[in-house]
Amino acid sequence: MNPLGDALGIIRKNWKLLAGLNALYFCVIVIGATIALMSPSLHLSMIQYIGAETIAGPSGANVPSNATDALIGSGYAFASSFFVNTLGMITVPSIVLPIWAPIIGAARFFIWGVTYVSPLEGVLAIGKLIPQYVAMLLEGEAYVIAIFACVRQLTVALASADMGLRRALKEYIKAVFDNLKLLIIVALLLAAAALYQALLVPVLNGFL
């Protein structure tokens, strides 16, 4: 068995669905960023409410004193992103309620768009935001794949509705296991985002 190979195979087979979700959530981010440009007061309120300068959260504003601290910080960031933001807020609830994933995903990407994309004079300089766009791309794609896995569960549930309870349950359980395989790719992307945030963003911020 090769779970990573299986996950890549699922993506290749369903690439149109994944591409559609990427386009959808990119549009949601753009809408949020446009609203932030039109309403600086809302933009500032969102930053104050979330209490963060970057998508890394409050710790993202702290420059680690050495590589060890940076690696420890990346470990905490990965744990939060994977276990809380992915498993806790997307994957596990969607096993019971598959429609939950695209809804919470839309809310998250809208908040990102309003809060973290557009510069805000005296608060978020464009030089500080540019390095964050790469982190947003990595972390955002991880969440899109997690949502993609849950949407596949939803399509299986709908397609199996007329197969009888036992067959429908069997197909749905298979889709859930496919979801778990896709989480391998999600974890890799989140790990890359965490390392980038901890090791490279502070360096890049020094040049911008």
Could you outline the blueprint of secondary structure elements for this entry?
Elements: H1 3-13, H2 15-38, H3 40-50, H4 67-96, H5 100-117, H6 126-159, H7 165-207
Helix pairs in contact: 1-7, 2-3, 2-5, 2-6, 3-5, 4-5, 4-6, 4-7, 5-6, 6-7
C-alpha geometry: globular
Largest sheet: none
Query: Strand pairing plus helix content: what structural class?
Result: mainly alpha
Q: What share of the residues lie within helices?
A: over 70%
Number of strands: 0
Strand content: under 5%
Which stretches are low in confidence, meaning pLDDT under 50 for 5 or more residues running?
56-61
SSE pattern, N- to C-terminal:
HHHHHHH
Q: How far is the N terminus from the C terminus?
A: 46 Å
Alpha-carbon Rg, integer: 18 Å
The count of helical stretches stands at 7
Mean pLDDT, all residues: 86
| Count of spatially separate domains | 1
